[in-house]
Each structure stands twice: as structure tokens, then as C-alpha cells.
Amino acid sequence: MAEHRAGKAGINAEAQARIHSKYNDEIAQETLEWIRKLTGEPANTSGTAENLYEVLKDGTLLCKLVNAIQEGSVKKVNQSTMAFKCMENINAFLEAAKKLGVPPQETFQTIDLWEKQNLYSVVICLQSLGRKAGNYGKPSIGPKEADKNVREFSEEQLKAGQNVISLQYGTNKGQQSGISFGTRRQM
Fold first, then answer.
1. Nearest residue to 52 (alpha-carbon basis) of 69, 38, 33
2. Could you tell me the domains of the chain?
3. CB-count burial class (<10 Å; 0-12, 13-18, 19+) for 108
4. DSSP classification of residue 148
5. How far apart are the first and last CA of the chain?
6. Rg of the Cα trace of the chain?
7. Residues near 28 by Cβ (< 8 Å), separated by ≥ 6?
8. 6, 24, 57, 101: which could form a disulfide with 132 (CB 3.0–4.6 Å)?
9. Burial of 25 (C-beta count, 10 Å sphere; 0-12/13-18/19+)
10. What are the pLDDT digits (tens) for 61-118?
11. Is residue 47 within 8 Å of residue 25, measured between CB atoms?
């Protein structure tokens, strides 16, 4: 796993440090407490990156979470601790999360969790899933999602908008300072 690799250096180390600086212990703790409310696990809801990794790394709790939100989301949860079986669990969670409405840009890659490369994106995905859980009658976390605000315009209103000249095209009112074509330079 990640502990057998050489450390990053140079620009890669700077980029990794930037990613790790975004991680927030308080939000991670809130997320773990929400998971415990739905699944009854984990016992330790400390928001440290190390605890989050230890709790979620095999993917079984993630699969239990999506099954708690919608029964049967993940059909087979691997109990094995083999690397590929754990990564299958994480991938199954990600697929189920997308089906529950988590946007693809708010998900993470399996390797982000498995090798602790970007735990910030893991928390973002769980927070997004927490917002979607309210749609399924489960407790939700994070800010409330915005409601759709569809507006209907009549043909008359749409045609009236075509007669308005945007300020991006300039104006013909007042003095047009800044236009000096054809004038002498003042000394």
C-alpha cells in the first residue's frame, strides 16, 4: 500500500501538501457521526485523517451506508481484506452513490481512499451523499440543496429583450471619453 512507496518530492510534494491542507477534521467528524446514525458504526467518530482512513479503507462500511439509504444498492459486500476485494467494495459504493444522485464531480477515485491520496475528496463525496439522503427519507447532513426555480417567459417578453442593447456594446449617451481617433495630442 502507500507506506511502501517513496515520498513525493518537488512539485508533487507541494501539490500533495495543498490537497492535504484542504482536509477538515470537524467536517470529517460530522460525517462519521452521520454514518454512525445510519449504520450503527463506527465506534470512534474522531475526524482525524488517520481515523477516517482506518474506518473506511476496506469499503464495507461504505457499502453498509448506501444500503442503509436504499436497500439493495450494493448486492455483494466483500468481507475479505485482500486489496482488490476492498477496492471492489469502494468502487461498488461509488457506483451506488452516483445512482443515488451524487454528481460525478463530487465523487472520488478508489485510489484516493485506498492509498490515502485525497481524503478531502472522500469527505466531499460523503457530504454530497448526505445531502441526497434526505430525498430517501433518511437524516441528511450539510447545507440544504437548492430547489429548482424554473421561469417561464412569454414570446412578447422574449422579443422585448432583443431590443435592449447590452452595456457590453458601449453607450451613446454622454461624452465618449477615451476615444481619441483623429484628435491632436495635448501637450
1. 33
2. 2-136 (1.10.418.10)
3. buried
4. P
5. 73
6. 26
7. 47, 48, 49, 52, 119, 123
8. 101
9. middle
10. 999 999 999 998 899 998 888 999 999 999 999 999 999 999 999 999 999 889 888 8
11. yes
The single residue listed with the C-alpha cell 481524503 is 119
Give CA–CA dist 41/62, Å, rounded.
10
Residue 56's φ and ψ, nearest 5 degrees, are -105, -10
Number of neighbouring beta carbons within 10 Å of residue 118: 19
User: For helices 83-99 and 60-69, what crossing angle results, to 10°?
Assistant: 20
Q: Go through the chain and tell me how many residues it has.
A: 187
Q: Which three cell numbers stand for residue 136?
A: 430517501
For residues 65 and 153, give the distance between their C-alpha atoms in angstroms, rounded to a whole number.
43
